[in-house]
């Protein structure tokens, strides 16, 4: 099966000064990031948003991938941006935020700053501990997608949650949590006051765990989990542009 219409990766080539890598969420697609990417492009940034392996086709395909595959895709995209842009930022939604944190942990000050929207680093519900066992007998469970408050807005995502892939996501959470202190870049963290997918403790764990001294927390009062497609989307877009402009490398003055 080919890639679903609208789920394709996208990019905008703008300034060689500043690049922005966007990472979509678990079972989601670049469609949830497209309006954000368009806004960043409108501000002159070079933008890349890859389609993560196993996503954007059928949910069964996601069960054949692991977090290392998803991380490999965003890592490759980051390296390409670092090769062409003077300053690079990374932003992510949900698991995209998890991947963003992992990139920040690995690449240090080669990343100028990160923007996290409802990032996930844990799940408190009891069934999370059963995922490795459940994955051997149950291929999928009901979907986590489409948690959007805005009427008429729909997330392009899988109708089922693949269990083996979810177990791999849980392993990624553990890896990222263990290394949060390695995150030293400026952080802009935006999280919804009501989120039916990612529990509030996630943002608190990130805020408490990173070593960054420049941290801005923004509470999104009128959105659910997929905030990049929700009522507060413009807040995310505007604040991320302001954040990037404030932390971008300043052009060297000519005599």
State the secondary-structure class. alpha/beta
What integer value in Å does the Rg equal? 17 Å
CATH architecture: 3-Layer(aba) Sandwich
Q: What are the low-pLDDT stretches, counting only 5+ consecutive residues below 50?
A: none
Silhouette: globular
| The CATH topology | Rossmann fold
Instruction: List the secondary-structure elements in sequence, H or E.
Output: EEHEHHEHEHEEHEHEH
How much helix, percentage-wise, in residues?
25-40%
Give the tally of structural domains: 1
For the record, give the distance between the C-alpha atoms at the N and C termini, rounded to a whole number.
58 Å
CATH superfamily: Alpha/Beta hydrolase fold, catalytic domain
- Fraction of residues in β-strands: 15-25%
Mean pLDDT score: 93
Annotation, overall tally of beta strands: 9
Number of helices: 8
Strand order of the largest sheet: 1-3-2-4-5-8-9
Largest sheet: 7 strands, mixed
CATH C-level: Alpha Beta
């Amino acid at each position: 099966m080919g890639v679903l219409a609208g789920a394709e990766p996208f990019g905008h080539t703008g300034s060689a000064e500043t690049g922005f890598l966007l990472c979509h969420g678990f079972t989601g697609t670049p469609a949830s990031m497209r309006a954000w990417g368009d806004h960043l492009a409108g501000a002159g940034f070079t933008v890349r948003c890859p389609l993560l392996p196993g996503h954007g086709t059928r949910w069964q395909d996601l069960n054949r991938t692991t977090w290392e595959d998803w991380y490999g895709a965003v890592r490759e995209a980051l390296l390409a941006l670092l090769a062409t842009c003077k300053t690079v930022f990374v932003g992510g939604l949900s698991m995209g935020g998890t991947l963003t944190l992992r990139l920040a942990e690995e690449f240090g000050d080669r990343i100028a700053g990160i923007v996290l929207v409802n990032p996930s680093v844990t799940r408190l519900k009891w069934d999370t501990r059963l995922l490795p066992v459940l994955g051997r007998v149950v291929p999928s469970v009901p979907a986590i997608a489409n948690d959007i408050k805005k009427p008429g807005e729909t997330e392009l995502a899988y109708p089922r949650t693949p269990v083996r892939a979810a177990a791999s996501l849980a392993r990624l959470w553990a890896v990222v949590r263990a290394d949060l202190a390695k995150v030293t870049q400026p952080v802009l963290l935006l999280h919804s006051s009501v989120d039916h997918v990612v529990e509030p403790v996630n943002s608190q764990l990130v805020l408490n765990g990173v070593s960054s001294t420049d941290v801005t927390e923004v509470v999104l009062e009128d959105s659910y989990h997929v905030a990049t497609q929700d009522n507060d989307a413009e807040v995310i877009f505007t604040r991320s542009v302001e954040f990037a402009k404030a932390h971008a490398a300043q052009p060297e003055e000519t005599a």
